[in-house]
Design brief:
Blueprint lengths: L12 E2 H10 L3 E2 L4 E5 L5 E5 L8 E2 L1 H10 L5 H9 L6
Antiparallel strand pairs: 1-5, 2-3, 3-4
Amino acid sequence: MKFWGYIGMPYRFTTGDLKKIAKRLGLQKIREKVWNGTDITGQFLQTHIYDHGDGVPIKTGTAKRQAEQMDFKDLEDMYDFLKDNKRRR
């Protein structure tokens, strides 16, 4: 019997998590949904964060797109950055 489901830890993020990550990366809110800036390596980053409240969960596909926009390898890398406050890029 084969199992075709998802294996591994599901990474879940909220709007508040994404805002916290963006701020730690040096991004600033410039318009209603647009956050941009340069990270500590001088790379320009831009993402869209739809603020429906800090505790509102973000869909996995949206989180993957934002991880890519903020130059993380994957959701695991972004989750590790969120949880480790001492971690630099």
